[in-house]
Amino acid sequence: MRLLTTLFLLLLLLRTAEPRRGPRSGAVERGARGRVRGRGRAGVMRRQTQECKEYMEAGEKYLDCQDRQLTAVMQDWPKDIHHLLLARNKIQVLRDNMFSQFTQLKSLDLQQNDISMVEDGAFSGLSQLTTLLLQHNGLKTASEEILLPLSRLTYLRVYDNPWSCHCSLDSLVRALQVPSNRNLGNYAKCAEPQSLRGQKLKKLNVDLLCANDNQVDRRPGVEEGGQPRPPPFKVKPEATSMCHTYMFPKPLLDCSNKDLNNIPSDLPSDIVKMDLSSNSIKHLRPKQFLLSKDLKLLNLSSNSLHHIDTAAFAGLLYLRELDLSNNSLHYFQYGVLEDLYFLRKLSLENNPWICDYNIHYLIYWLKHHPGVFYTGLICSEPQEFKGWRVEDYVKTYNGECPMDKQTGGMDTGQGGQGGTDNDAQEVVGETSERQSERLPRPLKEKKPNRFEIIRLS
């Protein structure tokens, strides 16, 4: 009996002990789950950080945090980055020492945020910074103090901000106008007051900034001279302010899909690549790219181009790639390509090329620039040559011409004598020992000498 009683008590003790073990076990489990969740949260933070694309290019580290809805800089970002891309986020204020941890930073892209204020020490610690992009924001005023830590700053973009040209902007404007700062603040304009709106900060008479403040009538609704104050002015953005500027890895002006009807005025002079594709540009006029002397790539594809004036590409001495595909071009006027000394690639696809006299200049130019790789020269008209390679059309055209046409003789309309089949198939402009170089007759015609001068001794 005692034995049974003892066993019963042991079983009872075991049952009463299990609930006490349960909470301890549950606590351990919850603790374990807590640690797992902690690791999970840390993992999420790492993933949030990893949402910014980190990559290397030309031995320098980039952190691409564009289009991330960010409102601030994260403290766990890598400290050794050289280029920080923060375009198209929701940053409103640049606080003191906001970027001071990135001491190796060379470029900082803050365009297309909601920035309305920059504290004087916002860029402290960025002694290596050479490029600062602040265009397309809401800045009205700033002082020279923001630039003082940036001893190596070379490029500053602040256009398409509603600058309030009053006395508080005096020090910044004076700094931008220093001759050595020729690439700082180009294209930025006053939005107010009425008397200065539309004027460029770089060319503004600085003495007017504070003078206007002293002359302003403070009565509500009244402007200088007692005239009623006009409604708030909104600066009409120029085409360049609608475009996106990227300075790294190479200076690029992206004006694609902006519904442009013309080439933007005041094109930046330091741009290497320019994308004007997918707009509604119909006509290229002379010298519109004259200031873009460093341009190496120009994309004009998918516009409505039907006419290019001679000298339209004047000044583009170093252009290497030109994309004119998907337009409405029929031919090139004589001389259009003469300034493109270093061109290496010419894209001409999907244009309605007309195979007649006018197309000969393009073939002539390409023949004398064998280093140019080109694509897309297919006849669309007339019907008998539709689908032909333009080069084949020109060869056929010359093959049917009498030899005296190719040597600058009179056009008799009869077949020539003495030429070989190979000679007849040569593209216009080909040189030989017995035949001097000539353009096609529609482009250049040598008139025969009708008079002979004989000196009598």
Task: Explain what the structure shows.
It contains 8 helices and 21 strands. The chain has 457 residues and is an alpha/beta fold. The chain has 3 domains: 50-241, Leucine-rich repeat, LRR (right-handed beta-alpha superhelix) (Alpha-Beta Horseshoe); 250-351, Alpha-Beta Horseshoe (Leucine-rich repeat, LRR (right-handed beta-alpha superhelix)), CATH 3.80.10.10; 377-445, no CATH class. A 7-stranded mixed β-sheet has the order 11-12-13-15-17-18-20. A hairpin with a 5-residue loop joins strand 11 and strand 12. The chain starts with a helix and ends in a 32-residue tail after the last helix. Residues 19-50, 216-227, 229-237 and 402-446 have low confidence and may be disordered. Keywords: Leucine-rich repeat, Repeat, Signal. InterPro entries: Cys-rich_flank_reg_C, Leu-rich_rpt, Leu-rich_rpt_typical-subtyp, LRR_dom_sf, LRR_TM_domain-containing. Residues 404-448 are annotated as: Disordered. This is LRRCT domain-containing protein. Residues 1-19 form the signal peptide.
CATH class of the largest domain: Alpha Beta
Structure class: alpha/beta
Could you name the CATH homologous superfamily of the largest domain?
Answer: Ribonuclease Inhibitor
State the order of secondary-structure elements, H for helix, E for strand: HEEEEEEEEEHEHHEEEEEEEEEHEEHHH
Q: Which segments are poorly predicted (pLDDT under 50) over 5 or more consecutive residues? A: 19-50, 216-227, 229-237, 402-446
Question: What topology, given as strand order, has the largest sheet?
Answer: 11-12-13-15-17-18-20
Helix content: 10-25%
